[in-house]
From TrEMBL:
It comes from the Bacteria. PANTHER family: N-SUCCINYLARGININE DIHYDROLASE. The keyword Hydrolase applies. It catalyses: N(2)-succinyl-L-arginine + 2 H2O + 2 H(+) = N(2)-succinyl-L-ornithine + 2 NH4(+) + CO2. SUPFAM superfamilies: Pentein. GO terms for molecular function: N-succinylarginine dihydrolase activity. GO terms for biological process: L-arginine catabolic process to L-glutamate; L-arginine catabolic process to succinate. This is N-succinylarginine dihydrolase. It is an enzyme of class 3 (hydrolase). It comes from Vreelandella titanicae.
Length: 455
């Protein structure tokens, strides 16, 4: 690529819209925030508006911003597959009485965290010069296992042009190939248009002999397998010289770091990480340095500065790290970072005052998402695109002032401002959700992607 072509490549953050059934069910084992807030009353309208406001503010600051729709919830079809029968009202009522945990699962709005939607590889890194996508199977939890089919349809509807985009099948939904998407994947590079090195982080190995020195967590499950990460890399045509596979520190997983993006975030040449992010910290950094064309800029936060408890509670590392044209970087953190003195001091005295490109910190209120265990980084899927690839997108999914206004009005028309766990059995909620989603697909111009639209 020429210098002009390289400079035209941009990262687009595709944020997931918070769905109409956003609720606090405490479904995610190993996610401390999700488990601790289970049973509380949620505010779907506030959650969706908080997410949209974050998108709008980043768009206004000059960052490319996209939108992904939520899933169809409640997933009554899943309940029918599990033996509940009768009318939709009958199915919901029986599930609420006989298996309330299943009802909560099929109402989950967890697809808002599009960092888990899948893994993408930009066109400049692969032999066929197309952008590659693999939806994550999310098999480690039932409520997220329900997502991949619709996720795949949504991605194929938006990234439809086969000249520019390639889509791969979901990995087998078995423990051996447990895949949690881009929450465990980071592309590191100089400029976006330059070749990148892909850091895949896994929690356990399913087959063969465990690598020397490796061990697994004992309190919470490791969700990502080495085999899943390797399979995605093969699907996308990535070579050994382009990939680094590192084990997440098992003690971090046991402390509530269920995905790597809760303990590390990277962008461009910068890797911001906690001392406890990787089991083999030195080996991971050395392999990245050896394979990257541009110098790696590691920004290490020591345990003595930020405890594991503070890291998990504040989601400091689940922040968005955004590249600026002048070579500096902006860190978008949740408001909870200000509530922890050690974290806020680290941001001011270690990150902003340190010898690294991070020059600005923006604080955003995403409390509705945070209480379910997802910060700013969880809410977005990063897609690196050339000009021609952005022009080839289908639908109305790149945020503009007009689209922001339309989506805000849509949320205000259709969303409730209060949702308790008992409300999930209300058949009117299901009807409201379908009406809203049908209108949303027309608003975004992405066609029919939901089961109820496909017949």
């Amino acid at each position: 690529m020429s210098a002009a072509d390289i400079s035209s490549v941009r990262e687009v953050n595709f944020d997931g819209l918070v769905g109409p059934t956003h609720n606090y069910s405490g479904l995610a084992v190993g996610n401390v925030a999700s488990m601790s807030h289970g049973g509380l009353v949620s505010n779907p309208k506030e959650g969706a508006l908080q997410g949209l406001l974050k998108m709008k503010s980043l768009m206004d600051a000059g960052y490319a911003q996209g939108v992904l729709p939520p899933q169809q919830r409640p997933d009554i079809g899943a309940l029918r597959d599990l033996g509940f029968s009768g009318s939709n009202s009958d199915v919901l009522a029986r599930a609420a009485k006989e298996a309330p945990q299943l009802l909560r699962a099929v109402c989950s709005a967890s697809s808002m965290w599009t960092a888990n939607a899948g893994t993408m590889t930009p066109s400049m890194d692969v032999p066929d010069s197309r952008v590659h996508f693999t939806p994550a199977n999310l098999q480690s939890s039932f409520h997220r296992y329900l997502e991949p089919q619709t996720t795949g349809r949504v991605l194929q509807a938006i990234f439809r042009d086969e000249q520019h985009f390639a889509h791969h099948p979901v990995l087998p939904a078995t423990p051996a190939f447990s895949d949690e998407g881009a929450a465990n994947h980071t592309r590191l590079c100089g400029e976006y248009g330059e070749p990148g090195v892909h850091l895949f982080v896994y929690g356990r190995q399913a087959f063969g002999d465990v690598r020397s020195g490796e061990r697994e967590p004992t309190r919470f499950p490791a969700r990502q397998t080495l085999e899943a990460s390797q399979a995605v890399a093969r699907q996308h045509g990535l070579t050994q010289e382009q990939t680094v596979f590192a084990q997440q520190h098992p003690d971090a997983i046991d402390a509530g770091v269920f995905h790597n993006d809760v303990i590390a975030v990277g962008n461009g040449p910068v890797l911001l990480y906690h001392e406890m992010a990787f089991l083999d910290e030195e080996g991971t950094l050395n392999e990245l340095r050896a394979k990257m064309a541009s110098p790696l800029i590691p920004v290490r936060v020591p345990l003595e500065a930020v405890s594991m408890e503070d890291a998990v509670a504040s989601y400091l590392f689940n922040s968005q790290l955004l590249s600026n044209p002048d070579g500096t970087m902006t860190l978008v953190v949740p408001g909870e970072c200000q509530e922890r003195e050690a974290v806020w001091n680290t941001i001011q005295n270690h990150l902003l005052a340190g010898n690294n490109p991070i020059s600005e910190v923006i604080v955003k209120d995403v409390k509705q998402s945070m209480r379910n265990g997802g910060g700013p980084a969880c809410l977005r899927l990063r897609v690196v695109l050339k000009d021609a690839e952005r022009a080839a997108l289908t639908g109305r999914v790149l945020l503009t002032d007009t689209l922001y206004d339309d989506l805000t009005a849509w949320v205000n028309r259709h969303y409730r401002d209060r949702l308790a766990p008992d409300d999930l059995a209300d058949p009117k909620l299901a009807e409201e959700s379908l009406t809203a989603l049908d209108e949303l697909t027309q608003l975004l111009k992405i066609g029919s992607v939901y089961p109820f639209q496909l017949g």
